[in-house]
């Protein structure tokens, strides 16, 4: 086993690491290549198009095994800590409630009790969501139990199982998953980055549809959706920001180039230019992807094309301006965040609207996650929940967003009309990741380190 050392990640934070920067990069990109290959070069052509059902089973088993490696083995291979993944742990929790000022100790105890009790209440009253998330009905069927797990809270002894499950899940989340030591600073950052993006989503919807954007909008439904997305976002970010973000931020050292930061008048010129590039890039990508996946006649006339181009500009220009602002603050860090976020975005093929939205969100999450003060998965889950629920309400439900409607069904098994053309974009993406490994080995100074 190699010796554990302390290295600086691309944002300048010092972290433990056992392997080299090069090994971090190659591992992360190779994992992404394997995932995309299994989904789009194995499952889609053989399991979906040719309908060879055993292929789907094999692919799912391999993906589960891969997930187990990412979550259970990789952290030990690299000497990652729980805090480096944005997680808490029982030892850290015990230190927080037994050391420090009385006020801080009391605040951690009260906060954890509120979380623990709230989670148990939600587990009971929102049991159907727990059943769906963990596929408990399917598990019961496999075990030969002829019961509807959704009905357990309303019968005895089923309610005991529900309460016991709630205690276990709540304990794991409260005392193992939540990192309390940096929660306030991380949550402050979460608000700073999520509120501007929230405004962009809502303003874009209003500009597109006016007051009709709020038709059938329910504040309570939206709030429940935010909470549900916080939990789901926590799980997703455990895989993407924690694994891919950690591997790739460690794969690059902080930049020493004086041109890495752009200031003054040149900064704002570049910010506007990047906004324009984002808008044009979104138009080109959307039209190309739609034409390849759904045929040349998918955009039926010039009027539809111009409408699509206009609304993509309305949505993506401000996103590009925000990206440009942070790019000018630290070019290298932003480019690494963009590469890391691509792993989060491109897993959502072939819903290309969702690819774009999650890639943008992923850039923000990975960028802030590079600093220890922001490395908190619950805070990231909050950003994911707030923006995910809002985007779904304004740009997904009922197709009311027209050409900007986002399909939340992703992956090879959710392609509605399977054709061989659908595979073109995934193949291009796989080639781009393969080229990125070659470029890193050839040009990145980090690849030459010993």
Could you walk me through the main structural features you see in this protein, from its secondary elements to its overall organization?
The chain has helices at about 20-50, 55-80, 90-100, 100-125, 125-135, 135-140, 160-175, 185-210, 220-250, 265-295, 300-330, 330-345, 350-370, 375-395, 425-445, and strands at about 5-10, 15. It has about 450 residues and is mainly alpha-helical. It has a two-stranded antiparallel ribbon. Helix 1 (about 20-50) runs antiparallel to helix 2. It is globular, with a radius of gyration of 23 Å. The mean pLDDT is about 85.
Q: How many runs of DSSP E, i.e. beta strands?
A: 2
Instruction: Give the termini separation.
Output: 16 Å
Provide the spatial order of strands within the biggest beta sheet: 1-2
Helix fraction bin: 55-70%
In terms of DSSP E residues, the strand content is under 5%
- Decide which structural class fits the backbone: mainly alpha
- What is the H-and-E element order? EEHHHHHHHHHHHHHHH
Give the number of helices: 15
pLDDT under 50 segments (min length 5)? none
Shape type: globular
Q: What about the largest sheet?
A: 2 strands, antiparallel
Average pLDDT works out at 85
Concise synopsis of the structure shown:
The protein is mainly α and 450 residues long.
């Amino acid at each position: 086993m190699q010796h554990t050392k302390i290295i600086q990640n691309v944002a300048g934070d010092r972290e433990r690491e056992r392997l080299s920067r090069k090994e971090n990069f190659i591992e992360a990109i190779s994992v992404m290549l394997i995932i995309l290959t299994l989904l789009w070069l194995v499952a889609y052509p053989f399991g979906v198009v040719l309908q060879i059902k055993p292929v789907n089973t094999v692919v799912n088993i391999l993906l589960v095994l891969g997930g187990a490696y990412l979550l259970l083995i990789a952290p030990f291979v690299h000497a990652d800590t729980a805090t480096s993944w944005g997680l808490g742990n029982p030892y850290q929790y015990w230190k927080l409630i037994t050391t420090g000022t009385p006020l801080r100790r009391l605040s951690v105890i009260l906060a954890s009790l509120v979380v623990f009790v709230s989670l148990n209440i939600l587990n009971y009253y929102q049991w159907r969501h727990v059943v769906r998330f963990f596929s408990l009905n399917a598990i019961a069927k496999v075990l030969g139990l002829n019961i509807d797990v959704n009905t357990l809270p309303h019968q005895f002894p089923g309610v005991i199982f529900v309460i016991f499950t709630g205690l276990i899940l709540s304990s794991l989340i409260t005392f193992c998953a939540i990192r309390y030591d940096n929660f306030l600073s991380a949550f402050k950052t979460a608000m700073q980055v999520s509120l501007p993006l929230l405004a962009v989503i809502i303003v874009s919807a209003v500009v597109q549809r006016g007051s009709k954007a709020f038709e059938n909008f329910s504040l309570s439904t939206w709030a429940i959706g935010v909470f549900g997305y916080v939990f789901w976002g926590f799980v997703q970010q455990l895989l993407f920001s924690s694994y891919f973000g950690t591997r790739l931020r460690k794969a690059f050292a902080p930049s020493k180039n004086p041109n890495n930061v752009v200031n003054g008048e040149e900064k704002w010129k570049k910010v506007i230019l990047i906004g324009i590039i984002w808008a044009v890039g979104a138009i080109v990508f959307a039209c190309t992807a739609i034409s390849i996946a759904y045929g040349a006649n998918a955009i039926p006339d010039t009027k539809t094309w111009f409408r699509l181009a206009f609304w993509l500009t309305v949505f993506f220009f401000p996103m590009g301006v925000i990206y440009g602002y942070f790019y000018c603050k630290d070019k290298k860090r932003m480019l690494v965040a963009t590469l890391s976020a691509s792993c989060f975005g491109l897993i959502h093929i072939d819903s290309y609207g969702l690819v774009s939205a999650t890639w943008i969100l992923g850039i923000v999450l990975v960028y802030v996650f590079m600093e220890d003060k922001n490395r908190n998965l619950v805070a990231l889950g909050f950003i994911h929940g707030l923006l995910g629920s809002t985007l779904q309400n304004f740009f997904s439900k009922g197709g009311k967003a027209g050409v900007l409607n986002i399909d939340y069904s992703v992956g090879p098994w959710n392609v509605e009309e399977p054709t061989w053309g659908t595979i073109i974009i995934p193949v291009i993406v796989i080639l781009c990741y393969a080229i990125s490994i070659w470029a890193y080995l050839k040009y990145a100074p980090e690849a030459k380190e010993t």
